[in-house]
Amino acid sequence: MAELTPPTLPTLVQRFFLDHLGEQRAVSAQTVAAYRDTLRLLLNYAAAALHRTPSAITLPDLDAPLLLAFLDHLEKDRGNSVRSRNARLAAIRTFLKYASHHDLASLATIERALAIPLKRFDRSMVGFLSRPEISAILEAPDRLSWAGQRDRALFSMMYNTGARVSEMIGMRCRDVVLEGQPAAHLRGKGRKERSVPLWRQTAALIRSWRRQIGDPSGDSILFPNRSGGRMTRSNVTQRLNLAVATAGRKNPGLLDRPVTPHTVRHTTAMHLLQSGVDITVIALWLGHEDTATTHMYVEADLAMKEQALMKLQPSAAAPGRFRASDNLMSFLQSL
C-alpha cells in the first residue's frame, strides 16, 4: 500500500536495493551490480541535465523525455550497442514498476515512462570457431609457465562446459569432481545450478593444475589470478586474446574476427549440435532457462548448410526451356 507521504527518490532507491532486490527477490550480486550501474548512469545524466545533485532529483523528473534523451546518450555519446541500451531500459523499468507501488502521485509519469519500447536491432549470425581453430587456441598458452598452465585448464573447461565467464571465474575447487565420472557443478543465471560431464583430457588438465597450485581447499578459487584472488572478466578476455594471437600464427583466419569468451560458449553449442546432440540437451548443457534461446544455434546451423549447398550447385547449370517440335505443334493444332 502506498504511503500517505510519498517517499523521496533516494529513499526509493535504497529500499529497491536493500528490501526489494536483497530481501524479497534475493537476486545475485551480478544482478545487483547491473541495476546499480544503470541507476548510477541515469542519475548522473539527470543531474547534469537538470543542474541538480543526484539526491535532489525527484521521481517525476525521470519522465519519458528525459529517459529517451538518456537512452540516446547511451548510444551516441557512450557508444553502447542497442542490446546494451535495451538492457539499461529493462533495469529502469524494473525500478519504476517498484516505485509505482509506493508513489501513486507519480503514477502517470511512470506509466508514460514504462511505455518506452525496446529498440529493435538486427541479430547477427552466431559466431563460432571450427574444431581446428579451438584446438589451436587451447594449445596456445605456454605449458611451462604458471599462467599458461592455468589458461590451458581454464580455456579447456570453458570449451568443455560452455560456461559463461561469470560461472568460470566464480568456480571453486569443490565445484569440480574428478573421481569416478568427472563433472563440473556450475551456478548460472538466477542461481540455477547444473552439472556438466568433463572429458578425460579436461579432467587431466584440472588434476595437473590443482597439483600446480598445491591442492588447495574446497573453498579456494579454482582459477585464481597472480595474487590468489578471483579473476575478472577483463582478465579472462585479455588472456584469451593472447592465446588467439599465438594461435593466429598458424591459423591466420583467427586474426580476422573478434574471439571473445562468449565465442567459446557459442562454439561449444555449435559443436554439440553438429555432433547430433538434441537441442534440449544443449539447452541444459548451457544453462538456458528457455529452449527458444538455444534455437538460434539451429537457425545458424541451417543457414550455414544452405550456404554450403549453394556452393555445390554448378554455376553453369542454367535452367533450359523446352521447345516443342513442329510435329507436336501440328498435332496440338489439329485437336
TrEMBL record:
Residues 7-100 form the Core-binding (CB) domain. GO terms for molecular function: DNA binding. It holds the Pfam family Phage_int_SAM_1. It comes from the Bacteria. Residues 124-310 form the Tyr recombinase domain. GO terms for biological process: chromosome segregation; DNA integration; DNA recombination. CDD domains: INT_RitC_C_like. Keywords: Chromosome partition, DNA integration, DNA recombination, DNA-binding, Plasmid. This is Integrase.
